[in-house]
Amino acid sequence: MARHEAVDACVILVILRPSDWSNTALGRLEALPANAKPVTNWSNRDEAFLSIACGIREVAQRLAERPRAQPTATTAHPVTPSVPVPSHPTPDSEVGGARLEIPEGPVRQDSFFYIRPVDEDHCRAELVNPGALIRIKSPKGFGKSSHTAGLLAHAQTLIYRTVALNLVGTDQKFFQDPDRFMQWFCAAAGKLLGLRVRTEDYWDDIFVANDNSTDYVVRH
Hints:
Layout (H helix, E strand, L loop, with lengths): L1 H4 L7 E2 L16 E2 L12 H21 L28 E2 L2 E2 L20 H7 L17 H14 L20 H15 L6 H4 L6 H11 L1
Parallel strand pairs: 1-2
Antiparallel strand pairs: 3-4
Helix pairs in contact: 5-7
């Protein structure tokens, strides 16, 4: 707070749950999300987090446009920052011996930019449940890919073999027929695991795609 009042830093208050923060020293700060409405009180929490992201971006833009203080003429010795900070950091820049990382995609869990999801422990616990399905949904830029990468890494520590399939670059023809899609899905996953494609051995036209794919995964 002292650095905030000295305009040496900027404190951004994010209200996750209802609390009596306005009657504390933090009460004079501008709070996010919009109208200082706690995130848990929003009917759509995605909109709440989007409001937070937009608010932080606006503050960052104001800080970037603010002119930097220059040494006055009465300074006896030139003021040289002990740690030079490049105006436009690159992935190879260093500040105080720490490498700066420009987040343009998934970030490591030990990254300064990584924000640990509140449900990470719950997702990790679900990994050990047979047939578990974890759906991660949020606006763009909120860390879905980083969260997913972290879960896959955790699964590997449990001696699980993992496969990551990106549906974005998949041929659209596979999405037009559920049976063909499941054949592709099983074959693609098995291939990444080093298994020979044997869909013809486990696919029977008398059964539906779910039955055939379950048989393929369980037995192959």
